[in-house]
Amino acid sequence: MCLRAGGLFEQDPTSLRLPLTTRRPPAAMASKGLQDLKKQVEGAAQEAVTSAGTAAQQVVDQATEAGQKAMDQVAKTTQETIDKTANQASETFSGFGKKFGLLK
C-alpha cells in the first residue's frame, strides 16, 4: 500500500505479485480432472476385460475337462465292450471245440 496525494491509501498496481505457489487456471484444472477420470475409466475397463478373460478361460477349462471326461468314458466303455466281445467269442469257440472233441 502506498500513500498518495490526498492522503488516501491504495494499493500500488506495480506491487502486485503472484503468490509463490502456482495455481492452475480453471481450464487446466478441468483438464486434470478429465485426465483423472479417463485414467479411472481406463482402469475400470481393463479390470472388466481381465475379469471377462478370466471367466472365458474358466469356461474353456471346464469344457476341456468335461470333454476329457467324456472321452475317458467313451474309451472305458469301448474297452469294456471289446473285452466282453472277446470273452464271448472265446467262450463260443471253446464251446465249438468241446462239441467237436477238439478241447477237453
Instruction: Report the count of strand segments.
Output: 2
End-to-end CA span: 134 Å
How many separate helices?
1
Estimate the global geometry from the Cα principal axes.
rod-shaped
Instruction: Give the strand content.
Output: under 5%
Helix proportion range: over 70%
What does the radius of gyration come to? 45 Å
Note poorly predicted spans.
none
What is the succession of H and E elements?
EEH
Average of per-residue pLDDT values: 79
Question: How would you write the strand order of the largest sheet?
Answer: 1-2
Largest sheet, in brief, is: 2 strands, antiparallel
Helix-and-strand structural type: mainly alpha
Describe this structure in words.
The structure is a single chain. Helices cover 71% and strands 4% of the residues. It is built from 1 helix and 2 strands; from the N terminus they run ββα. It has a two-stranded antiparallel ribbon. A hairpin with a 5-residue loop joins strand 1 and strand 2. The longest helix is centred in the middle third of the chain and has 74 residues, at 26-99. The termini are far apart. The mean pLDDT is 79.
Give a brief rundown of this model:
The protein is mainly alpha-helical and 104 residues long.
Please give the structural blueprint.
Blueprint: E1 2-3, E2 9-10, H1 26-99
Antiparallel strand pairs: 1-2
